[in-house]
């Protein structure tokens, strides 16, 4: 597609009035009605997904009948249809599922509600048909056929032999003098004798081992960062640093965390490199198709039960480990891993050789016509990445050699594979790069040619340094040369201590308070070769100091294969660091190969294994003037810039050539209207882009863009810069439509500051609080009570043993359920507990189920809740909302204090819940605030909590006035009738003054068209006494 095809239509900027009358968002309440709040919903509105009920109410029955006559409903599907086809397998057989497994609905809410010809949608479809042609029919067909964090105190569990070895070496070291200038001959001789004995004690691994970290807990909660991506159901360790945006996921933990995890890496610390969404696979239904001499399909139980298994420790490292060092010299294509894209865990599975023999592979290898033919074994995963399924191949004879231990793994550290690491089945090729170890393995077949998939041809290749553009004919030819493949792992060694930014007091070193310093790190080699030597230099390579090697327990396979990494260390006289310009490390393998001194740049940034260098600098503290020795690694993880390497110039979005476009300004309110796939606006570096036309061609997929569409925040800029090269910046320029206003920019900066503040608060999370603000927890259904024909009261139990719920009055929780593209979220306010003393580990929700009928699909979440079986889970996080009732008429709203003697609530539908919470707290305590409560619904059956509200009216007649207004009441109804209008608000509301506060929550049409205009005209003000829940 040419850039000219992507030019967005001419979109006028906001008017002079809109720009100059825009509120100062940086100093405005986050609960301004009608705008997107911090929990990504529009404040003061109930779920817009249910708003069709109020729209149809206004159109009347006549128009609805016309829509029915014009529309053929066909076989329309509701969320219940999808739920009915899914079994809660993880509850039946938890032992074969990850402990943090989640159920998902394998479609999207958009398909169920908006992309089927329900009568409520027909008019919208008819308007779009001319532009979209037959796209609707194709999309409907595609969607219908869719296939049906680790606590710090638990990190690091060392094996007994390593503890004993360290203890013995410590005793030896204490008895020896310092190493002086060079490493002294006598201490070195002693260390070598110690290491000789240690290496002699290493045992052969029979393949039946147990992981020493099997008791380490895995992450249970889900970070809210993934809530609007297809990976919304995947739990990840909270210290896993995202390196390429939120989706697809690629990340690594801090290198110190990884190293301190031990010689066997806890599962939650393993690096992640995904090329697309994590496929939601289930042990019970997953199948592996193997085509060799014959075609055989295996279930997971058949693989596990019918073949012998091995359980061995294997080093797995991404070929892009240390890529960021190359990027700092010149931009590369790929995820900028630093040094933590390597891990060593126990993998358990069956030998690929045995599975191939069961598929009669011998009929191919023994065929006389095939004797001189080079054969390949191909592997394909179930992941649907942007360039197709991830697939690759290796020589068949390599896979058939039992000594190579090529396996189909289904456990990691003695537990089912985590989702990010390939659940339920992953190929493991010990000694080879991670890119060949296909995750979510679904298909294996034999060919007489190499795999021709995109990811085998154009990924994981080491191209010569002269190739600087991957789109040229020369680059294309290079990609297809077999010798550019990255297969066997290369030699590598890294310094992990001193840490990045670590400080040592110069005074402590000079006074010999700190006499000895231990330099530590890791090293690995490929193809099972042993690391023969590791050495460090403190004088630019003139002399090298021998390092002690440490292995996991029983690291040797078949008498000579070393599939694991090693940890190494060297103790030096601390005073030597004061005169050292750099600390360098290198290692040697069994063939006396060693690492190159300097990096070898290549366009994909792979296989970087030059000497790793840490630089110490003496820095004076500006306040205390004390001097410290500060250590810097080549580069920091993510967007950190404190490493000693200086990177290339960042991509600059130069758009001034089109001054007319550049001068168009857009307000926050305008940008937030454009969040659909047909109209997706992004804000990057303060500029506004219409990305709608690049959704289908975006390499990262639609979900990456849609996670930021219509959102006015700095996150989009940060994530865009983290992964895009110059081509990406060029592509983006074609979508430019204007800039944000100064006030919108001020809002983004304020929200970023608030986000950073919240992050610090989350790090210090009170363990007595069950809720977590930025992470989803699973809440299990333990009780369901029928309140009326379509209203239920649900009781959910949280996994936390905390003593407090963590929700203040006026706040709400986010309730979610997983769909194929995102978490379906709804803000709900629990009706219990109201007081801390009522919390018993459970909470109650009162929810009205909006059932489907022939005209519409019903409420998505309400039907999910109604369909839940006992023991099934939903997601919950919170608290959300910055309205917090303090008692005595006092509110804390956005950290500002308000005091009201009179409270006016105007609510509709489910919007009654937050108002009820405040109402219950006021009336059930000693508060004296007066309350008027206007509750708008269609009929008597739609009034939520009617019994409780009637009791309040009866028991507190002098303090509360509750008015129910029904638009379609029965003939028996004696209360107010009709639609809410200005006259009724003035009649049943409080006249505005500084002692009166108004709180609103209802359907968008009700709130925007009636309530807001009336209240603001009456004298209520957004800044002082008008707020939206």
TrEMBL record:
Role noted for this protein: Nitrate reductase is a key enzyme involved in the first step of nitrate assimilation in plants, fungi and bacteria.
Catalytic reactions on record: nitrite + NADP(+) + H2O = nitrate + NADPH + H(+)
Keyword Metal-binding: yes
Cytochrome b5 heme-binding domain segment(s): 663-741
Lineage: superkingdom: Eukaryota
Top-tier EC class: oxidoreductase
Keyword Magnesium recorded: no
This enzyme's EC code(s): 1.7.1.3
Name the UniProt record assigns to this protein: Nitrate reductase [NADPH]
A GO MF label: nitrate reductase (NADPH) activity
């Amino acid at each position: 597609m040419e850039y000219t095809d992507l030019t967005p239509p001419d979109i006028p900027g906001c008017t002079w009035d809109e720009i100059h009358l825009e509120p100062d968002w940086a100093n405005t309440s986050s609960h301004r009605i009608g705008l997107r709040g911090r929990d990504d919903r529009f404040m003061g509105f109930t779920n817009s997904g249910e708003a069709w009920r109020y729209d149809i109410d206004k159109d009347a029955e006549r128009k609805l009948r016309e829509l029915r006559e014009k529309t053929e409903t066909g076989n329309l599907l509701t969320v219940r249809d999808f739920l009915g086809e899914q079994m809660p397998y993880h509850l039946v057989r938890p032992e074969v599922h990850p402990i943090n497994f989640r159920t998902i609905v394998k479609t999207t809410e958009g398909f169920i509600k908006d992309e089927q010809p329900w009568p409520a949608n027909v008019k919208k479809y008819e308007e779009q048909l001319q532009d979209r042609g037959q796209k609707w029919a194709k999309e409907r067909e595609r969607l219908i056929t869719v296939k049906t964090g680790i606590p710090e105190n638990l990190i690091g569990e060392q094996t007994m032999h390593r503890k004993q070895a360290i203890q013995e070496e410590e005793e030896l070291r204490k008895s020896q003098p310092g190493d002086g200038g060079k490493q002294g001959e006598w201490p070195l001789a002693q260390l070598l004798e110690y290491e000789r004995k240690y290496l002699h004690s290493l045992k052969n691994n029979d393949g039946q081992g147990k992981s020493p970290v099997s008791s380490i807990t895995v992450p249970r909660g889900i970070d809210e960062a993934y809530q609007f991506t297809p990976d919304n159901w995947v739990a990840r360790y909270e210290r896993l640093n995202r390196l390429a945006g939120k989706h697809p996921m690629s990340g690594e933990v801090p290198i110190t965390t990884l190293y301190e995890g031990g010689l066997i890496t806890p599962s939650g610390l393993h690096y992640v490199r995904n090329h697309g969404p994590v496929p939601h696979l289930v042990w019970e239904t997953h199948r592996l198709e193997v085509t060799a001499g014959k075609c055989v399909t295996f279930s997971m139980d058949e693989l596990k039960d019918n073949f012998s298994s091995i359980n061995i420790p294997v080093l797995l490292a991404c070929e892009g480990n240390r890529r960021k060092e190359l990027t700092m010299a010149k931009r590369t294509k790929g995820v900028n891993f630093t040094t933590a894209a390597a891990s060593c865990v126990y993998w358990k599975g069956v030998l690929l050789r045995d599975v191939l023999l069961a598929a009669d592979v011998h009929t191919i290898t023994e065929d006389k016509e095939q004797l001189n033919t080079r054969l390949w074994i191909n592997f394909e995963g179930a992941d649907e990445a942007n360039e197709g399924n991830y697939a690759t191949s290796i020589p068949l004879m390599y896979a058939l050699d039992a000594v190579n231990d090529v396996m189909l793994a289904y456990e990691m550290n003695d537990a089912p594979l985590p989702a990010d690491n390939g659940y339920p089945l992953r190929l493991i090729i010990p000694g080879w790069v991670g890119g060949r170890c296909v995750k979510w393995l679904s298909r294996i077949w034999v060919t007489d040619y190499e795999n021709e998939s995109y990811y085998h041809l154009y990924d994981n290749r080491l191209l010569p340094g002269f190739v600087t553009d991957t789109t040229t004919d020369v680059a294309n030819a290079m990609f297809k040369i077999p010798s550019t493949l990255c297969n066997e792992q290369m030699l590598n060694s890294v310094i992990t201590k001193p840490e990045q930014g670590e400080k040592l007091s110069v005074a402590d070193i000079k006074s010999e308070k700190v006499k000895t310093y231990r330099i530590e790190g890791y090293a690995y080699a490929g193809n099972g070769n042993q690391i023969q030597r590791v050495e460090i230099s403190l004088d630019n390579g003139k002399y090298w100091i021998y390092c002690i090697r440490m292995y996991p327990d029983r690291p040797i396979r078949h008498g000579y294969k070393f599939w694991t990494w090693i940890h190494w260390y060297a103790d030096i006289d601390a005073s030597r660091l004061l005169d050292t310009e750099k600390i360098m490390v290198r290692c040697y393998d069994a063939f006396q190969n060693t690492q190159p001194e300097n990096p070898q740049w290549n366009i994909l940034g792979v296989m970087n294994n030059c000497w790793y260098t840490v630089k110490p600098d003496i820095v004076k503290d500006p306040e205390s003037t004390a001097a410290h020795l500060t250590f810097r690694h080549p580069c920091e993880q993510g967007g950190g810039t404190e490493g000693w390497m200086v990177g290339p110039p960042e991509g600059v979005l130069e758009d001034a050539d089109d001054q007319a476009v550049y001068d168009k300004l857009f307000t926050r309110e305008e940008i937030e209207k454009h969040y659909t796939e047909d109209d997706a606006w992004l804000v990057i570096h303060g500029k506004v882009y219409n990305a709608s036309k690049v959704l289908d061609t975006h390499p990262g997929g639609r979900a990456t863009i849609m996670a930021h569409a219509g959102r006015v925040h700095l996150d989009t800029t940060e994530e865009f810069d983290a992964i895009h090269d110059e081509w990406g910046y060029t592509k983006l320029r074609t979508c430019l439509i204007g800039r944000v206003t100064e006030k919108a920019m001020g809002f983004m900066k304020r929200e970023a500051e608030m986000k950073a503040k919240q992050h610090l608060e989350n790090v210090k999370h009170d363990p007595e609080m069950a809720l977590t603000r930025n992470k989803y927890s699973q809440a299990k259904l333990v009780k369901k009570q029928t309140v009326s024909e379509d209203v239920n009261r649900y009781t959910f139990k949280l996994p936390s043993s905390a003593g407090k719920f963590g929700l203040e009055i006026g706040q709400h929780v986010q309730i979610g359920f997983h769909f194929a593209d995102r978490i379906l979220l709804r803000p709900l306010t629990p009706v219990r507990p109201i007081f801390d003393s009522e919390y018993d580990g459970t909470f109650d929700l009162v929810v009205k189920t909006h059932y489907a009928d022939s005209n519409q699909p019903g409420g998505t979440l309400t039907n999910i809740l109604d369909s839940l079986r006992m023991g099934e889970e939903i997601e919950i996080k919170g608290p959300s909302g910055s309205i917090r009732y303090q008692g005595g008429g006092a509110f804390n709203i956005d950290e500002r204090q308000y005091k009201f003697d009179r409270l006016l609530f105007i609510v509709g539908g489910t919007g009654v819940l937050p108002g009820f919470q405040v109402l219950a707290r006021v009336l059930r305590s000693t508060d004296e605030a007066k309350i008027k409560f206007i509750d708008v619904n269609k009929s008597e059956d739609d009034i939520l909590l009617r019994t409780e509200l009637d009791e309040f009216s009866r028991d507190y007649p002098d303090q509360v006035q509750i008015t129910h207004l029904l638009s379609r009441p029965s003939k028996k109804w004696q209360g107010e009738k009709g639609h809410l209008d200005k006259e009724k608000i003035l009649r049943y509301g409080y006249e505005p003054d500084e002692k009166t506060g108004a709180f609103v929550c209802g359907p968008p049409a009700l709130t925007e068209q009636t309530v807001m205009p009336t209240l603001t005209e009456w004298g209520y003000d957004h800044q002082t006494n008008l707020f939206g829940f």
